[in-house]
Amino acid sequence: MVVNEIRGDRRTDAAEPSDVLTRRASVPDATVAYGDLPDQVADVRFPRHGAGTAAPLVLIVHGGFWRARYDRAHTGPMADDLAARGFATASVEYRRVGQDGGGWPGTFDDVARAVDAVPGLAAGVVPGGIGDVVLLGHSAGGHLALWAASRARLPASAPWRLPAPPPLRGVLALAPVAALALASRQGLSDGAADALLGGPAGDLPERTALADPLALLPSSVPSVLVHGTADEDVPVEQSRRYSPAARAAGDDCARIELPGTGHLALIDPLSGAWPAVLDALAGLLGR
């Protein structure tokens, strides 16, 4: 995988309003539970071709600034498109800020558990099983994906620590909140990072050290960050801060910037940005 900075030359229609948050998608082929709580589930869609052979699994962590009013349903259109291209997909739900158990530490409990358990659960229901696993996260989900891949860097006392990096082919982070302390200082989405942590990052250094992907490098998991330069929700500075730090720490990390692209285009298979997302996914899988 190439580990350089890339600026896409494709201008997209991403700055235009998108209905991807409400667009209808197919009914999932299966829903698996990785815990006992209602939000500890993942919707699985089977690959639409290549039956009988192991398909790559795209494990999707949705965004929405970690808030309860956003859920996994809006990943349906992208999951449908990926399934049509021969991928298995699993769209993870987790407890979020504004609901019982969401935020610190419940959101992290759920995502860690999901990343560890859902691939095996999906393998049990997808015809032909699954092959390589790519963890894909958008926005706040990008933060959680990068964080989940970095848990081997957590101290031994942390409940989410892994003895080795998780068995992922890579992380595809779309417009990620990749630097949580910076997001707190930037006040993104009316203090969403502070709501996740339970207070300003600067006032909670111990929590921030456990929750910020930028503080947990190297992850030792390859990653590609795709970010639009016209993103008004999560500024491209987030990815510009993370990617050089990851490479300096020894990680295989690429950043792709898409000129004129906004925030939701990266999860919209009808947008002009979607081919760049597919190319990044193919790159992680060595295709």
Task: Provide keyphrases for this structure.
287 residues; Rossmann fold; 29% helix; globular; GDXG_lipolytic_enzyme
Your description of this structure?
The chain has 287 residues and is an alpha/beta fold. It has one domain (19-216, 233-247): Rossmann fold, CATH 3.40.50.1820. It is 29% helix and 17% strand. The protein has helices at 76-84, 106-123, 140-149, 180-186, 188-197, 205-211, 237-248, 274-284; strands at 5-7, 30-33, 41-45, 55-61, 88-92, 130-138, 170-174, 223-228, 253-258. It has a 9-stranded mixed β-sheet, sandwiched between helices. A hairpin with a 7-residue loop joins β2 (30-33) and β3 (41-45). α4 (180-186) packs across α5. The longest helix is centred in the middle third of the chain and has 18 residues, at 106-123. It is globular and about 50 Å long. It starts with a strand and ends with a helix. Residues 43-241 form the BD-FAE-like domain. This is Alpha/beta hydrolase. Keywords: Hydrolase.
Strand content: 15-25%
CATH superfamily placement: Alpha/Beta hydrolase fold, catalytic domain
* Anisotropy-based shape: globular
What's the number of domains? 1
Helix percentage: 25-40%
Please, what is the oligomeric state? single chain
For the record, the CATH class is Alpha Beta
User: Tell me about the biggest sheet?
Assistant: 9 strands, mixed
H and E order? EEEEHEHEHEHHHEHEH
**How are strands sequenced across the largest beta sheet?**
1-9-8-7-6-4-5-3-2
CATH topology group: Rossmann fold
